[in-house]
Amino acid sequence: MVTNTPNSPQSAYFIDDHSDDSIVRRTLAAIVDNEPGVLARVVGLFSARGYNIESLTVAEVDRRQHQSRITIVTSGTVQTIDQIKAQLERLVPVARVTDITMAPAGLERELALVKVRAATGSNERVEALRLSEIFRARVLDVTLESFIFELTGASSKIDQFIELMEPLGMQQVSRTGVLSIQRGLPL
């Protein structure tokens, strides 16, 4: 008679190998043909399979070759991310897909415009200006009742700035979504 203990290799119930099940966040950049319906096909691929898009940015990057760059921030297991990349690469209008997060020379930035209500002479007004200097946010507009700040950086930096501005009277936020690029020359 064989008895199974928690460390016994005979029992599959005690195998605890969930190392591949951890959720990772990835930034994918896809160079696509700039033609009608391409964005809908890419977004449809995510929607049909139940994948979430956390950030989506699209712009034409080469007018002569009629190509655009779609930057997608998503999350899932490593296997899910690999599956997303493989499915994106199979779409006909997609020229190439790069995982910027995994690239050793990858850069990610986001732009935000933040409107903060701060009346003239108030402590909140002084504090908002002080925080904007710390975060290197640029003042785009000033009125007697409010400021509009422009802030560029990592998404986490923008999140922190917004969190600190909320108790000071934050009114509105507009964010671009993540932009990405690789340092150096392409391989």
UniProtKB/TrEMBL annotation:
Dimer of large and small chains. Its EC number is 2.2.1.6. Residues 27-102 form the ACT domain. CDD domains: ACT_AHAS. Pathway: Amino-acid biosynthesis; L-valine biosynthesis; L-valine from pyruvate: step 1/4; Amino-acid biosynthesis; L-isoleucine biosynthesis; L-isoleucine from 2-oxobutanoate: step 1/4. GO terms for molecular function: acetolactate synthase activity. Catalyzes the conversion of 2 pyruvate molecules into acetolactate in the first common step of the biosynthetic pathway of the branched-amino acids such as leucine, isoleucine, and valine. This is Acetolactate synthase small subunit. It catalyses: 2 pyruvate + H(+) = (2S)-2-acetolactate + CO2. The lineage of its organism: Bacteria, Pseudomonadati, Pseudomonadota, Alphaproteobacteria, Hyphomonadales. The keyword Transferase applies. Belongs to the acetolactate synthase small subunit family. It holds the Pfam family ACT_AHAS_ss. It comes from Ponticaulis profundi. Keywords: Amino-acid biosynthesis, Branched-chain amino acid biosynthesis, Transferase. Coiled coil: none annotated.
